[in-house]
Design a protein that fits this description.
The chain is of the alpha/beta class. It contains 5 helices and 6 strands; from the N terminus they run E-H-E-E-H-E-H-E-E-H-H. Helix 3 runs antiparallel to helix 4. It starts with a strand and ends with a helix.
């Protein structure tokens, strides 16, 4: 299993957690972004820089992931593709997208986008908090523990 990160919008605290996990578990971590990233030196961590453009990083992750891989993303359409391909999708706030919740989550996202296109102002995401960071770390730890036992 590899961990893929939709890194352009991924909060720095999440990346820090993932760097430590990759080295501790000797697991491949690939950060995909359309801008250069700084990463700690590690044989387990690499970056993949893609062309600038809407959803280019998402498309690259979708192309390269295989069933069983974990993708860290807040992008709901990418999460839907990950699940369709048999992967696991976790958002930076510690919530897993699942076959059971992805359709509803995608529908709500599309509805909000239609509202915005119609001129309705919708609230953006809440600021990333210490509580979000802890929820992410806990969800990731539980997931990885289950994977190691399987």
């Amino acid at each position: 299993m590899q961990i893929w990160v939709d890194a352009d919008a991924c909060p720095a605290p999440v990346k820090e957690i993932l760097y430590r996990v990759a080295d501790r578990l000797e697991m491949a971590l690939i950060l995909v972004a359309n801008a250069p990233l700084r990463q700690p030196p590690s044989k387990h961590i690499r970056t993949l820089q893609v062309e600038k453009g809407l959803d280019v990083a998402d498309a690259k992750i979708a192309q390269l992931l295989v069933a069983g891989d974990l993708v860290i993303t807040a992008d709901i359409p990418l999460a839907a593709i990950v699940i369709e391909k048999g992967g696991h999708a976790l958002n930076p706030r510690g919530d897993f997208y699942t076959p059971e919740n992805i359709r509803e989550t995608l529908s709500l996202r599309n509805f909000s986008e239609q509202l915005r296109q119609g001129g309705v102002q919708t609230a953006g995401p809440a600021p990333y908090t210490q509580s979000d960071r802890q929820a992410f770390a806990n969800a990731l730890d539980r997931f990885l523990a289950r994977q190691r036992q399987a």
